[in-house]
## 1
Amino acid sequence: MGKISVGLNTEFSRSSDKPFEWAVEKTAEIGFEYVEPMIHFGRELMSEAGYFHTVSMFDDPYRIKEACDKAGLKISGLQAHGPLGRPEVHGEYLKLAIRVAAEIGVRVVNTDEGVKAKWTTEEEDMVLIKYTLREAAFVAERRGVKIGLEDHAQYSKTPDGLDKLYNLVDSPAIGINFDTGNAYLAGQDVYPWLERVADRLVHLHAKDISVEHSDAERGKVTGTPVGCACGDGVIDWAKVVGIVKDKCPRDIVFSVECGTPEQAARSLEHLKKLV
């Protein structure tokens, strides 16, 4: 049985039009212990201009570490999502993300299968995803980094589908980053699914879904970028905490995924009472 801590994914700052350092400082100001930065490959206008929170992997990785150290925050993982079934897109991206994580002492890199190519079959996708994951696992194994596979897209939207992806590569470097909100919106029963993956859990995206969002999209989508404040929606957080405490053998960070600083503060207040 491990310890549960609470962190914040930097996507909470997306609507604030602020840079990464602002998101880190705000995370600490709210009172979180952990932060989950998002990284990207190459260069793009909005983050370079200081209007977006992601960090380029072309920057010195110590930009991430030093900002978090200065704010007194620990890093739960790096968010490095991309299409695993498209090695030309996500192959080098994921391997570099693992090396960035290892250089600054981060133990988890989160990803998912992403949007598939339009012309490939499922059988072909499994070969392509296996290739990308196997290459990434070689890099992760020797660095002590875990790859957190998330329930987020067309194949991982069901328990069997996520297990199929997980079982493509036999590696101690591969685990599960369970997203509560994505599981719910995909039409699944969140709690038995969490129990099923608890022994493989390396990270958890604490995402709640409002009643209005549920009514509009449940069963129609495979996930969503951010949810509402934890405690304001449909997820039973006491049950989620209980499952992780009872069944997960390692320390886990609940990384809150919400849309605003105000929602982040309410999420922390709610989760702290439970963990």
## 2
Amino acid sequence: MYGTDKIKTIYFESGLKNSGIIDSIRANKNSSSEMIEIAHVSDLELLENKDFINKEVLVVSHYNGKFLSSCPGSDGMVCCRYFVINTGPGCIYDCHYCFLQSFMNTPWMHLYGNFEDILREVDEKISHTKFHTRIGTGEYSDSLALEPLTGMSLRLVEHFSRKKNATLELKTKSNQVDSLLHVSHNGNTVISWSLNPQKLIDEIEEGTASLSERIEAAKKAVEAGYRVSFHFDPMIHYPGWESDYHGVIDFLAENINPARISWISLGTFRYSPGLKEVIQKRFFDDNLSRAEMLNGPDGKLRYLKRVRIEMYRSMKKKIREYHPDLFSYICMDTKNVWEDLEGHAPGSAKNLDEKFEKRRIQMMDAE
């Protein structure tokens, strides 16, 4: 698994040199990592090579934009009322399917160092929202991959522990949970793992924790009182996929008490047209983008509808065998797919969000 020792150079803006994030990085960085102070992130423009993705450079800068946004759902897809914190785009891992490959306009990992502004924006959102709010990191980076270096997620957990009307979700493909195990989280954080069969982790999720490492980390989180969740997203269709994915659920059943699982999401591989060229250029033996796919209503390429429904139906049946009360949902797919699987589709994001709230209350009542 790639760790923070992979980072060789850390650039940081001079205005952040006394910030808590930089203090944490100074204290925890590998002794061979070099920290270089710069006046502004624009000073690095001459070093950019946008055709090269550099996992050995981390840039910490001040960000003046919005940190919090609605989950970037696509046109024509069923979505929920989920909000995403952007702590900075870029990931130390190198999953072949990752949308960041075509999304980022710089080649290195980026971290926003004005962390107090993130917390202020979160508080403002929570204070103006009448429903229980789910807010997560992990959309533009892995929530925990850099945690031993930055301590950012620990601070988020501590902050959300004092909130009565919000839940924090940390999404990861790592096993970096140790710093979170002894903090008072008050049940307000869900730690989530993206899961795939070990075959796919080995082939297309370069640098990530193994399946057993992820589940062992989830066991630690459960023992520390956290609720956990799992994301089978993206599911990849290939010969033998069903047996392999069912095996992952069997592994979950052997190790994780279903009463501690908040939700399980299911989503099949999809990608924007611009990503195909990047994947095939970076990974010469790629088979992901050569599968038979069609454009969806949002312009993304997806497996044929019958293939997606086959995968969802099989996985939902297996999840019910694991435990009939587990809440699972389909992420980023059409109302037609929902209707074929469930007999109905949520009429709005609010309708789907009510299912999350029902599960949260159910788990709280059982504690």
## 3
Amino acid sequence: MTRIALGVEYDGSAYSGWQTQQAGVATVQSRVEAALARVADHPVSVICAGRTDRGVHATGQVIHMDSDAVRDEKAWVHGANANLPDDIAIRWARPVDDSFHARFRAHSRCYRYVILNHPVRPALFRRQVTWNYRPLDVALMAQAAEHLVGTHDFTSYRGIQCQAKSPVKTLHRLDVTRQQQYLVIEAEANAFLMHMVRNIAGVLMAIGAGKAVPDWAAEVLAARDRTRGGVTAPPFGLYLVHIGYPGEYGLPDEPLGPFWLPGTRLTR
């Protein structure tokens, strides 16, 4: 058996998240496994780096699978894409040794949350951005974000149904930038809790709109109480853009996304 690592891009709008669920529920994993099984000519089970929720997108998801089928990298990519719907694509494939694990060998994950800050709601890209009509102060949001960087108990920023064993995570970076009418919140951590980025985005948007002072982000964190954290931001503007692995595996260093965003910084 050969272990294959693959990069996956998808628009999560039509799916109930990444993870396979009961029959009849559309998920990204079920579509990817079915397509790869057609190429491998045997059933395929994949492991992902990070399970995304309903409506969340990815430009840098990483998965792995084991197969005894003899295929080159191009065959895995183009063969799978020929059997995938238009809103999911395999970007690359690489053979790796058996020590590689898409989830457990990842040392970091990076998400981007894209906000359209405009008085009028969008008709196009309405499932690719979160719309906020109130003018948002990027400087205040960035000031608030500084309180969350580091190793903390993120209970106040985790989803109520989160099943992670520990709420303690290390947030390496939390940047807030404006690119024309778009605001981008970029979060990089060793791992994330359920809804963690969306709950952070909800707090930062409230502060940016003048509903709270920047220190409120720290007060929410210290409370260790999800009910103190305000509204969970919608999933539509959230993208999993990068997974960090040891360099020994030689995985492609793909540009970050989403690629349509004007002025997007494409490298870490």
